[in-house]
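We now fix the convention by which a protein and its fold are recorded. Think of the row as the fold of the chain written in a discrete alphabet. Here is one such record, which you should read through line by line.
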Amino acid sequence: MMQGLRNAGQTWLGKLVVTVLFGLLIMSFAIWGIADIFRGYGASTAVRVGSTEIGVEQLRIAYQNELQRLIRQTRGAITPDAARQLGLDRAVLSRVISDAALDERARQLGLGISDETIAQAILADQTFRGADGKFDRRLFDAAIRDAGYSEPRFIADQRRVYLRQHLSEGVAGGVVPPVALKEAANRIANETRSVDYVILPAARITPATPDDAALKTFFDERKNSFRAPEYRSLNILALTAEQIAKPDQVSDDDARKRYDEVKTVRFGSPERRAIRQIRFPTMEEAKAASDKIKAGATFASIAAERNLTDRDVDLGQLTKGEIVDRAVADAAFALAKDGVSGPIDGQFGPVLVTVTEIEPEKTRPFNEVKGELKLEIARARAQDQIRDLHDKIEDQRAGAKPLGEVAQSLGLTMRTVDAVSRQGEDRAGAAVALPERETLLRQAFGSDIGADNEPISTRDNGYVWFEVTKVDPARDRTLDEVRDQVVARFKEDDIARQLAEQAAALAKKVEGGETLAAVAAAEKLEAPKTATGLKRDTASGDLSRSAAVQIFNAPVGRVLSATATDGKDRLLIKITDAVVPPFVSTTQAAAQIDEQLRAQLTQDLLASYVARVQTDLGVTVNQEAVRLALGAPSP
């Protein structure tokens, strides 16, 4: 019952993941429909679920933990602002509310877990076991500390997680998808179709040239699509290590010193050896084999005597540090090429080893990496300058000095962007290169002329200051401004219309009994092509995704037309075959379908249950407290 949840819950980290999943499951309804009730709150209460209060600090910690986890997973590729845009703040709030609702219902039902059960679960957790396989107190302390827990808080949290898990199993455990649903899922997932098709190229159409009246009508009907967006003019002062680093001012001596410090780790590749190993049940057998080799036998002949293949004895090209058994590592790296060791009392039993190839240690020379090291040193020195310049810039801005004057006084370069849209494009539609692009655009379009804007922190510990100097509001363009674009759009639409009409007429001929080949020949089109093994909703070659959708929504034998993958040509298509693999419950594919449906049905049941629990208990949100906890900008 709920085996997937049980498996995920076998370690403390897995249990935390299960908790997060439960919260994210119901995000769609955990936020919407909650009344913004502001009476009866303590000063530190962000959310109340029944009689359970979630404090501002509790919510803040939950959000920061999730944010840091996301940043680590993406290796810093996502910023806090981007995470908020993705909805992380709403997801965390949803998860916290959902957890509280399940905790409250568990208390109402009188569910509980003994201290002994919790203790045994922690003692049995593989995460906290040392090299001897036993519970290691130091590992336990380090793990929960790294996760931001004290021991009492961790144990209390695990108790709640177990209770939520048991409650959820009781609600959604044992879900069995009906056979009819599995068969339908099998059809959707695995049905393939075959078609014959003819391409009607856009080049066969001569589009109409509109007169002024037709062009004006066309433009007026689509005026919004030609509308000019809002543009803003910006002054930008970027202060980054890359900008102010001066590698030419770093001496060779300083670069050499850095090289000596890091050359082994960064620029060196350790010695590697091709090692072969024969393992023996006893030391006596290993000694006997060693004696044979001393008497003239070869390592290969000993391996052959023991019915060992090359794969059985080959350990590969290894560095000394890559060999787990230290005794074997020491012996192997003490041998000359083609030498054979004596019997080694290894960690996993007696062995003989030989070395068939030696790749010497290599180190990239200083002159090869000197430029890289100088740039690195210059950037590190620039960080100190950045902190000093940041303070000087802020001091001058506090005195209301314009950004251009600030930059000039400090010998820095301010950049002027004449016009940029909210999408980061100039008036010609070309992308504008901007530092911290997404954040800068969002803040610039949330600011105003003359506003004092906070500097934006960059990923490399720099800063970006900006001023909005001009705002050109969004407006309707005149026909004269965009005449060439309108004419081009008119012709594109006319080509598409004519192609669709031609394809419809040809489809009627095929439906009337003519073959695709005959129609293609009469129209001087390329001969029909065949596509097999097409999947639902999936583009393939000339067949666009929209064509695939039509193909799977029509019966075999139907003739239809659709736009080709290039978005210009038209396809005349005849569906020739449909294949649905039989649903055999004993196959791996059937097991995967069953697992996916169980998971989906389980999610649906849990979502419905938690939604009802929240309705029964009552959920109220102090929006201002939540905003403070999540660090959201003021509305």
